UniProtKB/TrEMBL annotation:
<dbReference type="InterPro" id="IPR016163">
    <property type="entry name" value="Ald_DH_C"/>
</dbReference>
<feature type="domain" description="Aldehyde dehydrogenase">
    <location>
        <begin position="29"/>
        <end position="476"/>
    </location>
</feature>
<dbReference type="GO" id="GO:0008911">
    <property type="term" value="F:lactaldehyde dehydrogenase (NAD+) activity"/>
</dbReference>
<protein>
    <submittedName>
        <fullName>Aldehyde Dehydrogenase</fullName>
    </submittedName>
</protein>
<dbReference type="InterPro" id="IPR051020">
    <property type="entry name" value="ALDH-related_metabolic_enz"/>
</dbReference>
<dbReference type="Pfam" id="PF00171">
    <property type="entry name" value="Aldedh"/>
</dbReference>
<dbReference type="InterPro" id="IPR015590">
    <property type="entry name" value="Aldehyde_DH_dom"/>
</dbReference>
<dbReference type="InterPro" id="IPR016162">
    <property type="entry name" value="Ald_DH_N"/>
</dbReference>
<keyword id="KW-0560">Oxidoreductase</keyword>
<dbReference type="InterPro" id="IPR016161">
    <property type="entry name" value="Ald_DH/histidinol_DH"/>
</dbReference>
<comment type="similarity">
    <text>Belongs to the aldehyde dehydrogenase family.</text>
</comment>
Length: 482
């Protein structure tokens, strides 16, 4: 596919508030991270726009619960529409975020699955009976626990999965019976607006979804509004925990960063691990919270592993995200690219070996970079790179690998390659991560798994069933039968 045929500016995108399109008069440009081409303009929300959206969402909630059958019908139809519009959605993701088109298509498929899993979770989310007559005082009474929606949900999403992570916020929240005010990432907001339009076309009543755009000030106003019952945020660690600190009385669900490790022991299929590691680290230019960043490989196979890894990395096609053959596109902007480049250069100056990559191409993309034996205190090892950088260190034992993997501020997901069942179970018990994937890379995510971690990686689990539980609360009811 020729990228030039897609280089058309979209119509100006107004806000969506209470079923109305609102052009505020202030516009923010959305430009391609690859070539700077104007993709579209989005209306910038004011404080009044945010307040109006929250009030309208609150009014929809208090006016009466949207029946479960209707929520299910809307989400099922929305999933169908995502599938029907998959090509245009994939092109939109590639244009505004710079994700290679093949990976953008995969994201659209995942978003459709997320909506379908939201339906399945809504159908099966129930309460429980409490045997009150287990006490003499409870005789003649029936006890039950219901799950009820929290109220208005503020959903704040990042740029790296501009469609699927919006689906992970909207699908479960709406399935649970909560109206939502969405603030998509300013770098790539158009996919979120597109999904909102799909939900509208699927029959969602006006008051149940509002979209406001802008920067950190818009997010802060949403978080601070007293009528917002819950905040669900995916993004940077610093911003996430600041939200949590500023809203101690709200339900705050955080899915944050990672320095995802992969352990490859001497019994594991190191060839497959090397092959899988390439796109796990460099896909969408490493801009994923579970992008593979640290590899701990046993010294007996480290040399062969690195050799195979380098051959696969050098063969990657880097460039225009709208070209079908591209595997690695640009970082979201030049500032992030230059930061990652500085981190690479600092690690090399401190003693790491730059095995490949590390330079900026003429088109502005950063070459996928493999660093061998970076210092343990280097940013590329300790902090979340969020760029196309993979660090490899050799280890003498499985125990050492687990210890180094755990020596991190983050705890989202880890991968382990081993054919030793005992070691696999040991890793599952001892690795301090929300997910441990055996004979797989840590970048793998299934839409319906309970996804999340501890430490600085967050405080929640996502995936439709898990999110429905987070965005509802238990209500005890006792009925007297006498």
């Amino acid at each position: 596919m020729n990228g030039a045929e897609l280089d058309l500016q979209l119509p100006d995108q107004p806000l969506l508030i209470d079923g109305e399109e609102v052009a505020t008069g202030a516009w923010d440009e959305v430009r391609s991270p690859y070539d700077g081409a104007l993709v579209g303009r989005v209306a910038r929300a004011s404080a009044g726009d945010v307040e109006r959206a929250v009030r309208a969402a609150g009014a929809a909630f208090t006016a009466g619960e949207l029946p479960l059958w209707q929520r299910i019908a809307v989400l099922e139809r929305a999933a169908e529409l995502v599938g029907a519009r998959s090509q245009e959605l994939a092109r939109l993701i590639a244009r505004e975020m710079g994700k290679p088109l093949a990976q953008a298509r995969a994201e659209v498929e995942r978003a459709e699955a997320t909506l379908r899993f939201s339906v399945a979770a809504a159908r099966t989310l129930g309460g429980e009976l409490v045997p009150l007559d287990a006490l003499a005082a409870g005789e003649g009474r029936i006890g039950m626990v219901m799950r009820v929606p929290l109220g208005v949900v503020a959903a704040i999403t990042p740029f790296n999965f501009p469609l699927n992570l919006v689906a992970h916020k909207l699908g479960p929240a709406l399935a649970a019976g909560n109206p939502v005010v969405l603030k998509p990432a300013p770098q790539a907001p158009l996919s979120g607006f597109a999904l909102a339009a799909i939900l509208r076309d699927a029959g969602l009543p006006p008051g149940w979804l509002h979209v406001v755009a802008g920067g950190a000030d818009v997010g802060a106003r949403l978080v601070a509004d007293d009528d917002v019952a819950a905040v669900t945020f995916t993004g940077s660690t610093a911003v996430g925990w600041s939200i949590r600190a500023s809203a101690p009385r709200k339900r705050v669900c955080l899915e944050l960063g990672s320095t995802a490790p992969l352990i490859v022991d001497e019994t594991g299929d190191w060839e497959d691990a090397a092959d899988r590691a390439v796109l796990a680290s460099f896909g969408q230019a490493g801009q994923s919270c579970v992008s593979l960043q640290r590899v701990l490989v046993h010294e007996r196979v480290a040399g062969a592993f690195v050799e195979r890894l380098l051959a696969r990395t050098r063969a990657l096609v880097v460039g225009d995200p709208l070209a079908d053959e591209t595997e690695v596109g640009p970082l979201i902007d030049a500032g992030q690219r230059d930061r990652v480049k500085r981190w690479i250069d600092a690690a090399v100056a401190a003693g790491a070996t730059r095995a490949c990559g590390g330079a900026v191409n003429p088109d502005g993309t950063l070459q996928p970079t493999v660093l061998v034996d970076p210092p343990a205190d280097a940013d590329v090892w300790r902090a979340e790179v969020f760029g196309p950088v993979l660090c490899v260190r050799s280890v003498a034992s499985f125990a050492d690998a687990i210890a180094q993997a755990n020596d991190a501020d983050y705890g989202l997901q880890a991968g382990v390659y081993t054919r030793d069942l005992g070691r696999a179970l040991r890793a599952a018990r001892q690795l301090e991560f929300g997910g441990v994937l055996v004979n797989d890379v840590p970048t793998t995510r299934f839409e319906h798994q309970p996804y999340g971690g501890g430490k600085d990686s967050g405080n929640t689990r996502e995936g439709p069933a898990a999110t429905l539980r987070e965005l509802t609360e238990e209500r005890f009811v006792a009925l007297s039968t006498t």
